[in-house]
Each structure stands twice: as C-alpha cells, then as structure tokens.
Amino acid sequence: MSEAEKQGGGLVSLTSWLKSDPMGTCGVDGCEIEVGEAAESAAKSESSRVDGIDHKGQAAAKSAKVILPGSTIGILGGGQLGRMMANAGSAMGYRFIALDPTPDAPCGQVAEQIIANYDDRDAAHELAKRADVITYEFENVDAGVAAMLMEESYVPQGSELLYTTQHRLREKRAIEAAGVKVAPYCEVGNVDELRAGVAQFGLPCVLKTATGGYDGKGQWVIRDEAEIDEAFETLNRAGTELVLEQFIRFEKELSVIAARSPQGEIRTFPAAENIHIDNILHLSIVPARVDETVQREAERLAARIAEGLGAVGLIAVELFLTADGELFVNELAPRPHNSGHYTMEACRTSQFEQHVRAVCGLPLGDTALLTPVVMVNVLGEHVEPLLERMAVIDEAADRLGVAPKVHLYGKHEAKHKRKMGHVNVLAAQVDDALAWITETNIWRA
Ligand SMILES: Nc1ncnc2c1ncn2[C@@H]1O[C@H](COP(=O)(O)OP(=O)(O)O)[C@@H](O)[C@H]1O
Ligand SMILES: [Mg+2]
C-alpha cells in the first residue's frame, strides 16, 4: 500500500483508480485531473455493463476531466433541484454557486448565488469565472448562454443534450435513433396537418408544443374533431412547432433515471411508478408495482438512451407501460427529476450525489434500493397541514418501522399547486406507505 493510500479517503482511491490504467497519463493539477486514455479505457470496460449497445462514449472520454472535491460547481438555476444537488455535493466537499433571478432562491439558501436572469451574459460570464465546472437544473437554458459557457468554462454535459431535449421533435427522433420506441407522433405545421394526424391516430390524441411545456402546460388532449381548430389556434400562439401524439392508454407511467459519466460509465436507478394528479407528479412508488421483467426492461431502455444520446450527468426517462407490456418513452429530462427524489433515503446513492459524481467524472455510486418507498409531493396547499403534523409525524414509525422523511425547499410563498417539498415514506411494503399517506388526510383532494 502506498503512503497516500494509507492516509485513506475516497480521493486517494479515486486517484489510484485513475492511475491503475497502464495506458493512463493522469497528472494531478490542483483539483483537476486531465484524463485521456485512462478515461477512454474506463469507458470501454465500464460501458460493457450495457448490453447490445454501440459504445460511442470513447470519443467524448478523450476530453473527460475529473473535478475533485474542493472545486466549485456552478449551477444554472437555483430551484429545489439545485438546492438538493448542492446539499449532496457539499457533503462530498464541493462548493456551489447558482445563477438564478429570484433573490434567496432555494439553492441560494445553501450555496452562493448570482442574482440575475438566465440570459444575462455578464452573469453567465461571472459564473464561468467562479466555477470549475458548470451544470444546470432545467433544460430551457438559453442557447446563446449555453454556447458562451461552453467556450469559457467546462460544461461536461455539452450543449447537444440540451439542444435535443429542449424540443419534443428532436428528442423523439434521438430516442428512436437510440433504438427505443416513442408513442406514434407527427409534426404539425398547420391545421390541415393536424386534421390529417387526427385521422391517422384516432381520438383522443394529444397536441403538444415542441418547446417550453411542463406539468401538462402547452398540451391539449383532443377528444372531439370539433376541438381541432381551437386546439391548433391556442397552442400555435406559443410560436413554436407543434407535435401530435397518439393517446397511449397506459396501464402505468414509469420513470427511470440513468446516469452517465464522461468516461462512459452508466448506471440506472430502480424504475419508479408515477401517479400524477392534474398533470403534476403526486406519488412515485418504488419498487414499481409491475413485473420485474418490465422493471429491468425500463432500466435497460434508459441506459440505452443515455448511451445513444451520449448523455453526461443524469437523464430521466418517462415511460408509458401498456396493458400488453409494451413500453413507450414519453419524454426525457437531462437533469435530476422529481420522480427520483425517492433515492434520497431509499437508495445507497441519491440521484443528486450521482449527478455530481457524473459531471465531476468520478466513478458512479451504487444505485441499489435499500427499502420500499413512496415519495409524495408537497404542493402549496399541503404545506400547512403537513407543518401542523410535524410534531407527531415520527409516530408513523410505530407502524411503518421508520419515520417518514420530510424535505422542504425553502420557497417563500406556498402558492396553490407549487412544488414546496416532498416526503419519502419508507416502509416494509409500498402498500403500508400508501395507506399512511391516505390516512394522514394531508393529500386529500
Ligand atoms: N401521448 C400520450 N398519451 C397518454 N397520456 C399522455 C400522452 N402524453 C402525455 N400524457 C399525459 O400527460 C402527462 C404530461 O405529459 P408530458 O409530455 O410528460 O409533459 P410535461 O412536460 O408536462 O410533463 C403525462 O405524464 C401523461 O400522464
Ligand atoms: Mg412529463
């Protein structure tokens, strides 16, 4: 054992991990290690975890860097995802600085914050100057700012992943190119194309704006031909392309979060079963109540997409499962995802730690599920009843074996339907957790 190894710590084993490659040419330079062939070799060995996939990671691996703890991670966006990323990464020894226009944003409360609009070039310039590596917590990053940051800073996720996932049509084409199915769709440029699409897919079908939609906004479920004109007029006002999708009569909605490092290592978290109310995520149930073969297949598809898109960092994959066991991808998000919040207590590594590991080029963490869990979202209207219960919430441990874990994001105003926090309800079985959630009456409609 070398002297350095005797001193122990993850940092030392990381440097030996990098140096263990006989071809490696790693040189330690402050907090940053440039890895060339070492990373390429890691990519070759690690990506063999994913069966049957063309390994494209090697080219990107040439420019992979390892950003060690002590370095500063810049985040575009300062919401709850940034906050939880900063909490996880701070525990690993990283520093964080977020760019967000809202003073005292959720992430700004636990990290430094530059208060400025996302398209403010001077602010982005400052972020680039103060951070060793840059990531983002939302996908609608201004293209000009993204290009500028790529030029001035290290953005391991690149701009292509953003370009693809910012636009539903580009995203669907990329998923198909990775050999994974999406719901049948067509591009809609005018009302005649919409009419033709409706004739092709039948009713109901879903018209969506190609960019800018979230929580069901920017969509119209067309149930009757009489709605065609109004649906087109309304969504066309957004001034973006439109896409029409066949309505999938899904049995369940699932999601899988995959992580990929610049060296090409890929790991997936266990599939979550998601229940939405009014298009906003209400519950994530893990393990998903589907056959294990379906869980494995969903995870395999997510890994395939991460590989096919050459993603770095997290990529969340939302899927529809039909009654005859078919899986269609609905959409992607190149960042931590609400349906992955369950990992914070239920997995050996949280999605936030995994994202930090991935963008910093560290080996990815173990994604094993430690316990069944149900994540329930706390929206504005749930905050008061939840806080009233805080003093007694641990009593649930008598029933569940372990107390539910409450996470709140520090948002100032508890607006109706606004995501304010979540509770991870751990239990011996997901049914016990679901029963507790119902009985609290906090989430009554
Ligand atoms: N093609 C479809 N068939 C059936 N349901 C759909 C379809 N597209 C969307 N939905 C429903 O609407 C929800 C929100 O749609 P999604 O495309 O994920 O947009 P958002 O960006 O708002 O999450 C989905 O979670 C699903 O419940
Ligand atoms: Mg969605």
Automatic annotation (TrEMBL):
It holds the Pfam family RS_preATP-grasp-like. This is N5-carboxyaminoimidazole ribonucleotide synthase. GO terms for molecular function: 5-(carboxyamino)imidazole ribonucleotide synthase activity; ATP binding; metal ion binding; phosphoribosylaminoimidazole carboxylase activity. It comes from the Bacteria. ATP binds at residues 168, 208, 213-219, 245-248, 253, 276, 330-331. Catalyzes the ATP-dependent conversion of 5-aminoimidazole ribonucleotide (AIR) and HCO(3)- to N5-carboxyaminoimidazole ribonucleotide (N5-CAIR). Catalyzes the ATP-dependent conversion of 5-aminoimidazole ribonucleotide (AIR) and HCO(3)(-) to N5-carboxyaminoimidazole ribonucleotide (N5-CAIR). SUPFAM superfamilies: Glutathione synthetase ATP-binding domain-like, PreATP-grasp domain, Rudiment single hybrid motif. Gene3D superfamilies: 3.40.50.20, ATP-grasp fold, A domain, ATP-grasp fold, B domain. Keywords: ATP-binding, Ligase, Nucleotide-binding, Purine biosynthesis. Homodimer. One of its GO terms (cellular component) is cytosol. Its EC number is 6.3.4.18. Pathway: Purine metabolism; IMP biosynthesis via de novo pathway; 5-amino-1-(5-phospho-D-ribosyl)imidazole-4-carboxylate from 5-amino-1-(5-phospho-D-ribosyl)imidazole (N5-CAIR route): step 1/2. It comes from Paenibacillus baekrokdamisoli. GO terms for biological process: 'de novo' IMP biosynthetic process. The keyword Nucleotide-binding applies. The gene is purK. It catalyses: 5-amino-1-(5-phospho-beta-D-ribosyl)imidazole + hydrogencarbonate + ATP = 5-carboxyamino-1-(5-phospho-D-ribosyl)imidazole + ADP + phosphate + 2 H(+). Belongs to the PurK/PurT family.
